[in-house]
Amino acid sequence: MRSISLKDLIYRSYLSSSLIPIFVIEFVLIILYFGASYFITHQSQKTLYLSASQSLHEITTREAQKISHQFQDVSRIAIVMQTNHEDFFRTPQSCFVPNTPPEFAVHENGVYYKINDNGGSSTYYSSTTSMTEETKRKASCSESMDPLMKSIVQTNPIITQAYFNSWDNFNRLYPFMVDAPAQYGMNLKMEDYNFYYLADATHNLQRKPVWTTAYLDPAGQGWMISNIVPIYNKDFLEGVSGLDVTIDSLLKNILSLSIPWNGSAFLVDADGMILAMPERVEAILGLKELKEHLYKSSINQTIQKPEEYNIFKIKNEQLREKIGDFFKNFNQFGTIKYENSSYLVSQESIPETGWRLIVLVDEALVYKPIHNLKQKIDWIGYAAIILMVLFYLLFFSYLLRKSSKLARKIAVPIEELSFFTSNLGNKADNQIYKRVGITEVDILTQNFNKVSLELDARTKEYVESQLREKMQEKDAEIAYKAGLFESASSYLHNIGNTLTMLDSKILLLRQIEDALGKSGIGIGRVIGMISKSSATLEQKEEVNRFLQRFEKALTQDVTQEIEDVVNSIESINKQAALSIHHQQDLFNANVENQETYTQLFDVKTMLEELVEDYRVSFNKHGVMISLECDDSLMLKSIKFQFHNGLSNVLKNALESIEMYPEMLKGTVVIRAFRENNKIVIDIEDNGVGVKSIDMDKIFKSGFTTKKHGHGLGLHSFNNFLNSHNGRLAMSSDGYLKGATLHIEIGDDNV
After folding, report:
1. CA-wise closest residue to 704 among 669, 666, 656
2. Which of 165, 326, 355, 163 has its CA nearest to residue 250?
3. Structural domain boundaries of the chain?
4. What is the pLDDT of residues 245-277, one digit of tens each?
5. pLDDT tens-digit readout, 614-659
6. Do the Cβ atoms of 104 and 124 come closer than 8 Å?
7. 593-749, superfamily in CATH?
8. Is residue 60 within 8 Å of 346, Cβ to Cβ?
C-alpha cells in the first residue's frame, strides 16, 4: 500500500472535502447547459425540417404551375400560328406579300433560298426538291406567314424562333438567317428531326401542340426545346410549325426562380433527361449545361443531349443512386446525402408537358440560423467555463495557503519526531527537548527519549562486537591476498623493471661499441696527417707503429671484448624474460589454483566500482569517463585477476590521454554487453593511439611505449583471458587518433 505523509493527507483531505463537491456541481451544471442546448437545437432542427419540407414543396408546386402556365401560353400561341398557317394552305389562290418582294437564288450547293432580308423570314428549299412553279410560288407566297411569326418572337421573351417546315423539305424561319444554305447544308430532310416527326400522324393523332426534348438546333441557335404543331390541309400533312425556346432562354426566363435558402431548380423530362439547369445545379451534379454549340458542319439529324445528362447516368454512383430513386419513386420531398453534402429535394410535375421541376436546397443553409444560434450558445458556455476556471484557480490558491498552514501546524511536530526516530542508533544524541504543545505528541516524545537512551546503549555494545569480528575477517582476507597475489605481482613487476634497465645498459654498450668501431677512421686520418708533416722519417715510423698498435688494441681487441659481453648479457636477458613468461603461463594454466579463487560475480557492479575508483584521477586530469553496461552480465572467473586487468587498462587509457597534451577534452567510454554467448567489454579513449608498426607487438612480453613501463600488464592480462576462453584485441586508426581495447570472455565462463 502506498504511504502518504501526514501533511499531504491533511492537505488532500481538506481540498477534497471543499473542492470536489463544488467541481461535481459545476460539472453537472455544465452538462445540463450543453445538454439543454443540444436538445433545443435538435428539436429546432426537426421543427425547421418539417417547416422547410412543407414550404419547399409548396414553392415547387407553385413554381411548377407557373412554368406550366408559361408553357401553356406558348402552346396557345402555337395553336394561333397553326390556324394561320393552315389558312394559308386552304386558300392557295391568294398570295399576299406584306413586305418588299423577296428575291430568290440557287446556291452553289443546289439550295433554293431567299437572298434579301426584307424584314421577314429566311427561306430554304433542299437541293433534292424539284423546283417547279408550284414550289416557287409556295416559297414566295408563304411570306404572308411572316407578320405573325415576327410578332410572336418579338412579344414573347422566352420564344427565340418561329418556323414552318414542309413535307417537301421547305423551311421558313424567323428571324432571318443570312446564310441558310451553308448552315443547313445541301439536303435538309425534315422527317429526320424530332421537331417534325413528333407532330406527324404517327406520333400526334390529336393534332395538338407537342413539346420536344432538348436537341441541337440545325439553324445554329444551340441547344433548345420546341413546341410544335402539325399543319394539315384537310387530311394531308403540309408540314410542321414550331416555336423554339433555347436552353439559355429557359434558364433566364423560366428557371430564374427566387427560391428561399439560395435554392436552385432544374427541369427533367419524363425519361430523366435534364432539359435545363442553372450553375448551382451544375456544381452539384458535376455537369456543365449545354447552351451554345460550335457548329463545324451541318446538322443532318436530331442530336439530343448526351447520356450523362440523364439523372440515371450521372457519373457519381452514390448521387446517381440517390437522385435516381427519388425521381423513380416520384417522392414529393426528401433528403439526398452524398459525400460530405446533404440537400433537401422537392419535385413536382408540370401538367402541360409531363416534365418535372426539381428543387435542390443545401441543408446547411436551411439550418444555418439554428447553427449560428447554437454556436453563440456554445460560446457563452465556453466563456462561462473559462470564467469558472479562473475563479477556481484563485479559489484553489486561497485554499492551498489555508490548507498548507493547517497541515504544517499539525504535521511539523510529527515530522520532527519521525526524523529523530529515523536516526536511532546513528547519532550520539537522539533526544528531543522541544515541547510542541500537543498533549499526545509530547507524551510520545517522552516515551521516544526513553527508548532512544536504551537503544543507544544496546547499539553501542552490538557495534563494538561486530566491529571486532569484521576486523578479524578483513585482516585475514587482506593478508591472504597480499601474501599470495600482490607479492607475486610485485615480484614479477620488479623483475620486469630490472630487465628494462638491462635493456637500457645493453643499448648504451652497443652505442660505445659503435663509437669504438668508428675510432679506426680517426686514427687513419691522424696517420695521414703525420705522413704529411715535417717530422723525420724515423719519428714518423715510430708514431705510425704506436698508432697501429693502439688501433689494434682499441678497435679490435676492446671492441670484440665489449661485443662478447653485450651478447652474453642479451642472452641472459632473453632467458630471464622467457622464464618470467613461462612462470606466468604456468600460473595461468594452473586450473586447480584458479578454481580455488573462482567465483560468480556481476560484471556491471565491478565496472561501476572501477569507474568510481578512477573517477577522482580522471576528474583531476579533466578526463570524462562514462559507462554503458547491460544488466545481468554474470561471470564466473578469478575476480581479482579480472579486476586487476581492467584496472590496468583504465590506467593505460588515462596515461595515453596524458601523452597527448594537445587534447582539449579527454574521454574514456566503457561499453559492456553480451554477444553470441560471450561477454564483451570495449574500452575506448581518444589518447595518442597506437602506431601501425607497434600494433602486432602490443601484447608481447616486455613491449611498452611508456618511459618507465615494463611491458607485462597487457601481456599478463591477455594470457589470463586466453586461459579462460577469452582474448584481447586492439584497434586504432593511427597515432594521435585514439584506441579501443576489445575484451572477450568465452561462454564457458558465463
Report:
1. 656
2. 355
3. 476-589, 593-749
4. 988 888 887 787 778 888 888 999 989 999 888
5. 888 888 888 999 999 998 889 888 888 888 899 999 988 888 888 8
6. no
7. Histidine kinase-like ATPase, C-terminal domain (3.30.565.10)
8. yes
